[in-house]
Write a structure and sequence with these properties.
Length: 134
């Protein structure tokens, strides 16, 4: 495996690990809110939003070796907000038009949102070399 490909794979695995904390917050919050009767689109928006800061704090340092900055945080949150709006809309539409549980649609959305977020983060932190935190 080439050094460049190896670096991308390391980043991908690190991003996946950092995103896991956010995923627990997101899925747990979504499930709880839907169970309490909150509309799927709103439950997704709330649970996803709660996970964004945790993911940012983890991936900036451990995945990209980047310093946390207000500018990158604002851009990161704006990107995630756009992804949350798109995925929340899709989940709501699919839940309303099928007999499939909204939680299933939430799970189906994860690989798509993960890939989009990883690719965007590569661009956002492109000036950062991968370094292990000290």
């Amino acid at each position: 495996m080439s050094p460049r490909l190896l670096a991308v794979v390391r980043r991908l695995l690190s991003f996946a690990a950092g995103s896991s904390a956010g995923l627990v917050i997101d899925l747990g919050g979504f499930f709880t809110l839907v169970t309490l009767g909150v509309a799927p689109w709103l439950a997704n928006a709330i649970s996803s939003s709660a996970a964004v800061t945790a993911v940012y704090l983890l991936v900036t340092r451990y995945t990209f070796g980047a310093r946390r900055r207000v500018r990158t945080y604002v851009v990161f949150v704006a990107w995630y907000a756009a992804v949350i709006v798109v995925s929340s809309t899709a989940i709501q539409l699919l839940a309303a038009t099928t007999a499939v549980d909204p939680f299933v649609w939430k799970l189906v959305s994860i690989p798509f949102t993960f890939a989009a977020n990883f690719c965007f983060s590569l661009v956002l932190f492109r000036d950062r070399r991968f370094t292990a935190p000290t």
